Amino acid sequence: xxxxxxxxxxxxxxxxxxxxxxxxxxxxxxxxxxxxxxxxxxxxxxxxxxxxxxxxxxxxxxxxxxxxxxxxxxxxxxxxxxxxxxxxxxxxxxxxxxxxxxxxxxxxxxxxxxxxxxxxxxxxxxxxxxxxxxxxxxxxxxxxxxxxxxxxxxxxxxxxxxxxxxxxxxxxxxxxxxxxxxxxxxxxxxxxxxxxxxxxxxxxxxxxxxxxxxxxxxxxxxxxxxxxxxxxxxxxxxxxxxxxxxxxxxxxxxxxxxxxxxxxxxxxxxxxxxxxxxxxxxxxxxxxxxxxxxxxxxxxxxxxxxxxxxxxxxxxxxxxxx
Length: 322
Ligand code: ADP
Ligand code: DP6
Known about the structure:
Blueprint lengths: L4 E10 L4 E3 L4 E2 L3 E18 L6 E4 L2 E2 L2 H18 L4 E9 L8 H16 L6 H11 L11 E5 L8 E6 L6 E5 L10 H11 L3 H6 L1 H13 L3 H20 L10 H15 L4 E5 L5 E5 L4 H8 L8 E4 L6 E2 L2
Parallel strand pairs: 5-7
Antiparallel strand pairs: 1-4, 1-14, 2-3, 4-7, 4-8, 5-6, 8-9, 10-12, 10-13, 11-12
Helix pairs in contact: 1-2, 1-3, 2-3, 6-7
The site of ligand DP6 has 14 residues, from helix 4.
């Protein structure tokens, strides 16, 4: 039994940055994201007795053992739950640049959780799928859901999963400014580990999170793009500040990211509701009103090319393709 499964990327507005338990991927803090329609992964899995090892074929290319490792954590858990031993052939297509800070790990591992559990004959509910995706890559647990989702950190495998917060069927959108879609030098996994272990700013980051989380949930309830954007922008800047305090220090920003952030500030001066967030990469995401996406893109075309600007609306949760 095999079926293509689709999961969309999600972008965190309150970031997950640091693990309490690296083995199980239990985070230090709750995070909250918006799943988007523009970027996604399609994956299918085939458990096949004739295979002597697991295979991951991403965009037609067989992947190295590092990528296979994340995938195998999910496959092994599925095999354990289904009581099977067969190796698997995983075929995946990313409609998102891989490892560029555009959340391919979120859509990739969420799609895998759906496809692998289906192929093994398990019928998991969304909470179970979220836990399964989480052990592949933390942020993936939020891509099981559409709209806004919160990853409740929990304390062990069974209590750490995402829950839906709001379907986001209102006037909110996101515009991606892709300044570089090449593979980044410091992965999110390595970056957050180094920060937790060495950055003196990390404690300050953690202490500020409860306030950010409750404020953004209020803002979502009130459907206020302005407040959501303002809180998300501050939260992202705090996260990125922790990396400068790490040893050795690092940053995901480039001069092009700074240019994009300045452009967003300029948009605000011109009366648009526009805020930015950034992840483990140089690309900038503009949080804005869906109804202003076109005009914002038009303004940004003065500094960036058409191919660098990608409009996104809230997207759906995980689903099987017919
Ligand atoms: P990103 O910003 O794209 O999420 P990360 O460094 O966090 O970057 O994660 C990228 C890694 O996620 C890849 O190197 C690979 O190991 C894994 N990954 C990405 N897409 C897929 C996929 N479709 N299937 C399986 N694993 C994937
Ligand atoms: C900055 O989920 O990619 O995008 O759990 O180690 O696989 P692992 O990390 P990952 O980290 C995402 C970090 C982030 C913030 C976020 O998405 O919340």
